[in-house]
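Our consortium's second objective concerns turning raw sequence data into structural hypotheses that experimental partners can test. To show how far this objective has progressed, the report includes one record in full. It was chosen at random from the queue rather than selected for favorable results. The single chain below, 106 residues long, was entered without modification.
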Amino acid sequence: MSLTNEEVTRLCFCAAIGATAVYPIDLVKTRMQNQRLTPSVYEVMYRNSFDCFRKVIKHEGFFGLYRGLIPQVVGVAPEKAIKLTVSLMNYISVLYINWTEILLID
């Protein structure tokens, strides 16, 4: 069984939606991991994830949470579509094998 172009497009679209939904969380995680001590006060920039989230919105606006999203989606959509396709093909083949075994036993 092969997937049609429409099904592959849907898989890419679903992957893009998923990446968009979790991107603000990933942005906060990355900023928390990359923060350094400020040289003047020797403090970290963000105390916790909620503080980071609040400061990004305050200083960069709501869309600051999505800064850098397009390269992420361009890279992630095809990769996720391939993973979903392989998983779907594996699932279908396992179902087919199980049904053929059941039919042959009876």
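The partners drew two points from this record. The mean pLDDT is 81. Helices lie at 5-34, 49-60, 69-105. Both points have been shared with the crystallography group to help prioritize constructs.
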